[in-house]
Amino acid sequence: MTDGIRHTLFGNFDPSTIAANADFKEDSVRAVIIDPILRELGWTHEEILRAKVIKTTGQAGTKKKEETLIPDYLLRLFGKYACVLEAKSPSQRILDTNHIRQAHSYAAHFEIHSVYFALCNGVEFALFRTSDPEKPILYFYIEEIDAHWGDLLRFLSPESFTSPAAPVYVPPFVQKEFDYKSRPLPQKIIVRKEGAKRHFGVHGYFTRQSWDIVSRYIKNFSAQGDVVLDSFGGSGVTAVEALVNGRKAINVDLNPLAVFIVKSLLTPVNIREFNDSYQRVCEEYIKKEPKTKEQIEKTLEKYPGPKNLTLPKGSDVRTVPQLFSAKQTARLALLKAIIKKEKKKHQNIYDVLMLMFSGLITKINLTYHQSSNRTAGRGDASAFRYYRYRLAKEEIDLDIMKYFQSRYKRIIAAKQDLEIQGFACNPRISVEQMFANAQIIKGSATNLSFLDGESVDYIYTDPPYGKKIQYLDLSAMWIAWLDMDVSEEDYALEAIEGGSREKSKDEYKKLIQKSIEEMYRVLKFDRWLSFVFAHKDPEFWHLIIETCERCGLEYKGVVSQNNGQTSFKKRQHSHTVLSGQLIINFFKVKTPRALLKQNLGMDIGDLVMQTIEGIIAKNDGAAIEEINNELIKRGLEMGFLHLMKKEYSDINPLLEAHFDYSFETGKYTIRPHSKFASNIDLKLRVRYYVVSYLTSMELQGKTPTFNEIVYNIMPLLKNGVTPEQQTILTVLQDIAERIDVEDDITKDGWRLKRGDRGLFE
Q1: Is 731 exposed, middle or buried (CB count within 10 Å of its CB: 0-12, 13-18, 19+)?
Q2: Rounded CA gap, 18 and 16, in Å?
Q3: Distance between CA 15 and CA 541 in Å, rounded?
Q4: Cα–Cα separations (whole angstroms), residue 749 to 256, 634, 691
Q5: Roughly what angle, to the nearest 10 degrees, separates helices 725-735 and 706-713?
Q6: 302 φ/ψ angles, rounded to the nearest 5 degrees
Q7: Partner residues linked to 136 by β-bridges
Q8: What is the mean pLDDT of the chain?
């Protein structure tokens, strides 16, 4: 692998921004992405044929037919073609079947007959052997090209072709030894939430981590073959991304609906047999669909509807059956009964058909709310949208077979995506072997007794956030139709506040504490844990850091990350409801260092106000989540989170009292003609940010230069008296020490003196 190849190819241009740039079209993909790659691979101008028109004659029955082929790129050596490369716009998926067929038809044509064909849309790159167009031999995101450059060179550089006939044999890639101890924290990434068919559109759920965030963390903190655990697994994003990236996965969740979704998605099926079953189900349903009042009544007498489960408080009706009209109940009951017949033929196919059926329930109910200015089928059940069972103003009459067919297409796309992604990572194992590397467990994060101590290589988990979502209560509609059971023990172990069992904050805290203790027990030493959290109450953050430190986990830093979704509540109350999340990272070592509390000479009010003003000044305005995340991060690393939890569990009154809010931008700003309200001495403010920055850098094993320190803290001091560099240097010399001293002070590294560090040595 070549270090820094991305910078060599694209300079400071960030390929991850392409997908969000509407002006970046196919011609930009060619000029900005593909051309630099081909040049760096070693292809000369003479060897690259662009948009070459090839006229040929084909046979159509008894008549001859002229054809014109215009591949975007032909790579030619020795008078023969090595590869066809097709460019697509970023809005088009390169693994779309039609695009693959088009590129393959060029590569396989008798006048071209290239060894490889490839597709690139600026975001993704896929390379296929022309002899095997079903699975790519290489697939990656352009932003991650550094990690795949070695493979790209060995397949596609001119030196890989020694004769007109075939490429040279290249030994299999051998992964280098993985250094767990020196892993950097991933930087904030731009999400592509809808970019993976293995997740998007398979089945709705209350929350879902963006797959690309999870994938980045898994690849950063674990090696291929490692065991990855998510003990609050939900709909299985962590498990799926672990599998397609060549890891083993353990997914644990109390909610039977979540477990069902993951198991069904990861159930291998023969596509041809699955299609046959699907066609049988559709044909029988169409023949028997009840349409008249009499037919509906007869169907209801013959086939059972959902269980008569009680709905949580706040629902518009009392029981699950009241969430469906008679027509909806009759049609769903008939479809379910027909699907059940397939169970005798093949259990796996039955499970996947029931996944499609469950996804259909999301649309066929009286709580289905159609999205404004969109077609009737573009909406959501109120449990997913509003986190309560809220009846729609009117019943939306949807064609069951139309949306059952849509479910089928989504499932097929998901299965194919899983196979392609898994093969791209490890072509030596089948999809069945990949799925066999997953353990999907219905259970509690507080009891992982089925796992031995120190048996897990990496944990990425996203626990419930207090009283935000009552998962078991809100799953009642699906649980009732899928004949699932939820026990009183399940409710007792669910880590939430409130809910139908009216759990207290203390009960929630105890369950989170116990789950962290279990994570610590099963995690190997010298391995990482990434804990995703999004709560505005500092008390819960203090609980996490305190419990992790007590167990023996060493805090390594927190990353602010947008998850790519905005809830209905956030859209309605943008200035009070948080979106996004913080990912807090820990490392398990035998002698962990604990965070110390800094003595900065300020009271908690000044600390909070200074932090708020700093982030607003730095960004020329800040959203509520940016302010909250900054307070949590500074509080964690500077040691005042325990003080915040007592006095600033809700910062909204403080923000409303001292700052202006714009509903148009969604940001708080410092009021016109005003300076910082905290009235803190300049040197004390500089000290606060220098200590905070150096603490953060030391957690990551870095020693920043003087210039880097100035660059990072100066924006936080805008709108007040801006310090001179000499002032920063004076503060720095008082609290920090120079490392690797050189004549030029700006090139030295700096770290806190022992007495001022945020960590024990």
Answers
A1: buried
A2: 6
A3: 34
A4: 53, 22, 14
A5: 110
A6: -90, -40
A7: none
A8: 84
Q: Looking at beta carbons, which pairs linking 420-425 to residues 24 or more positions away fall under 8 Å?
A: 420/95, 420/135, 420/136, 420/139, 421/139, 421/198, 421/244, 422/243, 422/244, 423/135, 423/136, 424/126, 424/135, 424/136, 424/137, 424/138, 424/139, 424/140, 425/224, 425/244, 425/245, 425/246
Of 252, 191, 118, which Cα lies nearest the Cα of 562?
A: 191
C-alpha closest to that of 354 among 474, 213, 436, 256: 256
| Spatial separation of the C-alpha atoms in residues 88 and 103, rounded to whole Å | 11
Q: How many other CB atoms are there within 10 angstroms of residue 60's CB atom?
A: 8
CA distance 695 to 475: 43
What span, in angstroms and rounded, lies between the C-alpha atoms of 242 and 257? Answer: 21
516 three-class SS = helix
What secondary structure does DSSP assign to 591-604, as a single string?
A: S---BPPP--S--H
Distance, in Å, from the CA atom of 229 to the CA atom of 250, rounded to the nearest integer, reads 5
| Cα–Cα distance measured from residue 449 to residue 594, given in angstroms and rounded to the nearest whole number | 28
Those residues with Cβ within 8 angstroms of residue 605's Cβ, 6 or more apart along the chain or in another chain: 647
The pairing of strands 73-77 and 48-50 is: antiparallel
pLDDT digits (tens, 9 = 90+) for 225-254: 999 999 999 999 999 999 999 999 999 999
> Which of 614, 607, 714 shows the shortest CA–CA distance to 668?
614
* Helix runs in 599-640, H state only: 604-619, 624-638
DSSP secondary structure code for residue 561 in this structure: E
| pLDDT confidence bin for 171, thresholds 50/70/90 | very low
Give dist(CA 514, CA 517) in Å, integer: 5
Structure tokens at 136: 């790519």
Strand-pairing partners, residue 50, are 73
Nearest to 608 by CA among 638, 577, 578: 638
pLDDT score, position 342: 94
334 near 349, Cβ under 8 Å? no
Burial of 200 from C-beta contacts in 10 A (0-12 / 13-18 / 19+): middle
342-345: long-range contacts (C-beta < 8 A, 24 or more apart)? Answer: 342/277, 342/280, 342/281, 345/277
Nearest in space to 381 (alpha carbons), one of 130, 568, 589: 568
Domains of the chain: 5-160 (3.90.1570.30), 193-267+414-595 (3.40.50.150), 271-411 (no CATH)
pLDDT value of position 170:
41
- How confident is the model over 584-619, as pLDDT tens digits? 999 999 888 766 555 556 677 777 887 888 888 777
Spatial distance between the Cα atoms of 36 and 756, rounded to a whole number of angstroms:
48
DSSP at 49: E
Mean pLDDT score, 394-404: 91
**Contact in structure between 665 and 565 (CB atoms under 8 Å):** no
User: What percentage of the chain has pLDDT greater than the value 70?
Assistant: 86
Helices and strands (H, E) in the chain, number of each type? 28, 21
User: What does residue 347 show for φ and ψ, rounded to 5 degrees?
Assistant: -60, -45
Residue whose entry in the numeric block shows the structure tokens 């101590």: 453
Would you tell me how many other CB atoms lie within 10 Å of the CB of residue 229? 29
**180: nearest Cα among 225, 228, 243, 223:** 223
Residue with tokens 């990236």: 245
